[in-house]
Amino acid sequence: MLDVQLIRKNFPVLGQMVYKKPLVYFDNGATTQKPKQVIETLTNLYAEQNSSVHRAVHYLSSQITERYEAARMVVKDFIHAEKMQEVIFTAGTTASINLLAFSFGEAFINPDDEILISEMEHHSNIVPWQLLAKRKGAKLKVIPINEMGELRMDKLEKLLNGKTKLLALTHVSNAIGTINPVKEIIQKAHAKNIPVLLDGAQAIQHGNVDVHDLDCDFYAFSGHKVYGPNGIGVLYGKEKWLEKMPPYQGGGDMISSVSFENTTFADLPLKFEAGTANYPAAIALAEGLNYVSSIGRSDIAVYEKKLLTYATEKFERIDGLKIYGNSPDKISTISFLLEGIHPQDIGLVLDKLGIAVRSGNHCAQPLMKSFGIEGTVRASLCFYNTEEEIDLLCEGLEKIKQMFA
Length: 405
Ligand code: PLP
What we know:
Shape: globular
Bound molecules: pyridoxal-5'-phosphate
Number of domains: 2
CATH topology of the largest domain: Aspartate Aminotransferase, domain 2
Distance between the termini: 41 Å
Largest sheet: 7 strands, mixed
Strand order of the largest sheet: 4-10-9-8-7-5-6
């Protein structure tokens, strides 16, 4: 079992008071708080080791280069990639997906091709594909969901066809928490030679991610959603695809030689890392991932499942509360509405009680539309949250009901 009180001491932000109330942070789907290890790594790095990565022969630069490449190995092991060449540092999930949409799109998408996404995607896994489809005269196809907030597997079968060039799917829904049966889906797509990108922005903080076992072709995630710093993310790609894809951005670090007539490119992964890398964030991300591993990802998943069950049972006892997303396979994220009360009002009153939740469409407008609503309130819980905090949230919701009655 996790020692949650000890864990909480490691997250300085969590100890503070908000409007004279102890902060309850339930917005982990948007961004997670940072453990001391990550904060101290950043501070110490700037204080003692800062220097440009991959560039100079001097002491500081070679130390930073070593640490940057060691961070890549930590990521590789964390997601069970086979080779460090398959781990590209980006600015985050959005940057990873845009890289892929441009580069994969240049190499493999032609007029009338189809790119398949789902109804539960974050805007980051819709808009880059829409832009690509417009550029190339291709089509965007969408797997619908059922009323539980699960993918319609019967529709998926038909949508995967000879024209489909890529399936870009969220591993876990940020808005309603559904965990998609991605391994089974990847097998179905591969049976038709269709590569698969998983948007892992929400999956990465909630359990074991094994790209080798999943056999996905690409996997994208953000550092700030897995207890790491902002401004860093990862695009994992199988080497066989990355080798065939052209660079996304041109500049320093991604070249082998440059003349005015021609440029040859660096080997993987640097081919896709133009410009001075965000090495402090990459190094601090590795610290964040090591910290998560030290707690134990299976233990985290078990504890968060317990929190989810506790919260769901308590929510179900609140009259007029409706949960959106009822798949039995869910991360510890609960999206809900209170009858007759605008989600924004719920968020604002909860804030005054010291409770941070997200209200709105969660960058998933098409998903909200499919439920016939504009938005929800989302409580996204993680391993530093407690049952006592869930009790505070439920008391807050009862108060709000009385206020608006
Ligand atoms: N995809 C999903 C499922 C997300 O939840 C998010 C962020 O909320 C993103 C993509 C975009 O992540 P970022 O803003 O870190 O690039």
